[in-house]
Amino acid sequence: MVEKKKIQIPRGLKDVLPEEQKYWFHLENNFYDVAAMAGFDRIILPTFEFTELFKRSVGELTDIVSKEMYSFKDRSGHNVTLRPEGTAGVARAYIEHGMHTLPQPVKLYYFGPMFRYDRPQAGRYREFYQYGLEILGEDDPIADAILIQTAVRFYQKLGLTDFVVKINSLGSDKSKNKMVAVLAKFLNEHKSDLCSDCKLRMRKNPLRVMDCKIAGCKALLDSASSILIDSLDEESKKRFTKVLEHLDEMKVEYELDPTLVRGLDYYTHTLFEVVLKGSDLAICGGGRYDNLIKQLGGPITPAIGFAGGVERTIEALKTQEAIVPDPVKAELFIVQLGERAKSKAADLFEKFDTANFRVASSMGRGNIQSQLSEANKLNCPLVIIIGDQEVHDKNVIVRDMKDRSQETVIDRDVIKIVSRKLEEKGIRIS
After folding, report:
1. Fewest CB within a 10 Å sphere: which of 174, 251, 329, 330?
2. Do 163 and 240 reside in the same domain of the chain?
C-alpha cells in the first residue's frame, strides 16, 4: 500500500500555536486600548477587493502591485486581489459610505490579515497581520505629530524600549516630482554603481531605489540625501518644520532620515517609520496621502495613517525580552467540595455568568488541590471555594491566587466583593 504524502502548510505561512497566543492577546488588547483612548473607531475591511483599487492607489510600478499581489478572477470573471495593505480599503470605504459628510476628521483603526507573495524571512510571511490607524479629513501638521505620538505610546505600552522614529518629507506633488527628476538624474550619472534591481527600479520609479538595502547602493544613496532635501519647496519645508516642532513639544524623540521614501505611490509630505535600534527592521511605517481619496473618485481629503506588522512586533517583544503577561482565560474559578456544594456552585456560576464574568469550574471533580491547579492553568486571579460548611453558613471563601490570601464573604455581597477585588487588579467587568 502506497503511503499518502503528508500535507503541510504552504511556504510563507505560519500556524499561531497556543503558546504564542499570549503575545497576540497582549498586542491586540493594547492596540485596541490605545486606539480607543485616542478617539479612533474600528473598521473591519473585506479580505479581498477589486484589483483596480490597489493598482490605482498603491501604484502599478511598485513591487507590491507588480510582483507580490495574490490576484485572480472570480467566477463572474472579475479581477480581485487579496488585500496587500489596509489604507486603500479604508480610502475606498470612506468614499463609498459618504464619510466626508461626517464631522471631520474621521479616525479609524483596523487589525487583520494581509497577503503578499514575498520572500519569506524573519518576521515576514505571505499571510501576515497588520494593525493600522488612519486620520481622514485633517491637513493640520499637528495630526501628523499626534499619529506618530500615538504609535510611540502604543509601543511603550507594549513594553518595547529600543526603538526610534525615523521621519522625512516628500513635500507637495510639485516637490515630489522635482525630487523624482533630480534623483533620476543622479542615479543615471551613477548607474554603473547600482545593483541590477536598482537599475531596473530607476527606469520605472526612481524613488523605489531608495529602499535598497545592499551596502554599495545604500552608501551611494546616502550621499544623495542633500539633493533630496533641497527639492522641497518653501511651503513643504514650513509644513515639515511644524510637524517637527509639535513632536518636540510632545517630547517625542525622532531622527531625520532624508533617504526614507516608503514603498507606496500615494505618499506625500510626512513619512515615518518606527525602527528597532541597531537594525534596519521597521515595525511600523506610514505617512500622509492627501491625494489618494480624490484619485479614487472621492472629494479632496487630506489624510495620514500608519500600519504595523504584528509578527515583526512580536519578534521585537521576544528579542527585547519584554514582560508579556499570560492571558486571563477566566476571571473567576469556582471550587466545589462535597455534594451539598454542587447546587450552590451551579447557582453562583449562573449569577456570575449573567453579570458578564468569565467564570470556570471543573464541576467538582477532584480534591481542592487539583481544582486549584486547574484554576492556575486558566490564569484565574480569583477563586471561590464552596464546601458543605459554606453552604450551611451562607457564605463563600474568596481566594487570591497570586498572594494566596483569602476572605470569607457572605452570599449577598459576593459579586460586589469579587468585582472590587478584580478592579484592584486592573480587571474591569463590562
Report:
1. 251
2. yes
Do 244 and 392 have their domain in common? no
| Residue 207 within a domain | no
Per-residue model confidence as pLDDT tens for the chain (430 residues): 567 888 999 999 999 998 899 999 999 999 999 999 999 999 999 999 999 999 998 877 677 787 889 999 999 999 999 999 999 999 999 999 999 999 999 999 999 999 999 887 766 799 999 999 999 999 999 999 999 999 999 999 999 999 999 999 999 888 888 888 888 888 888 888 888 878 877 777 787 777 777 777 777 777 777 777 778 889 999 999 999 999 999 999 999 998 888 767 788 999 999 999 988 789 999 999 999 999 999 999 999 999 999 999 999 999 999 999 887 778 899 999 888 888 898 888 899 889 889 899 887 667 888 899 988 888 899 999 999 899 999 999 999 998 999 999 999 999 999 999 998 888 877 6
Q: What range defines the domain where residue 168 resides?
A: 18-172+233-319
Question: Quick one: how far is CA 424 from the chain centroid?
Answer: 29
Look up residue 163 and give its amino acid.
F
**SS3 readout for the chain:** CCCCCCCCCCCCCCCCCHHHHHHHHHHHHHHHHHHHHCCCEECCCCCEEEHHHHHHHHHCCCHHHHHHCCEEECCCCCEEEECCCCHHHHHHHHHHCCHHHCCCCEEEEEEEEEECCCCCECCECCEEEEEEEEEECCCCHHHHHHHHHHHHHHHHHHCCCCEEEEEEECCCHHHHHHHHHHHHHHHHHCHHHCCHHHHHHHHHCHHHHHHCCCHHHHHHHHCCHHHHHCCCCHHHHHHHHHHHHHHHHCCCCEEECCCCCCCCCCCEEEEEEEEECCCCCEEEEEEECCCHHHHCCCCCCCEEEEEEEHHHHHHHHHHCCCCCCCCCCCCEEEEECCHHHHHHHHHHHHHHHHCCCCEEECCCCCCHHHHHHHHHHCCCCEEEEECHHHHHHCEEEEEECCCCCEEEEEHHHHHHHHHHHHHHCCCCCC
Phi/psi region, residue 426 (left: phi>0; alpha: psi -120 to 50; beta: rest), is left
Same domain, yes or no: 27 and 61: yes
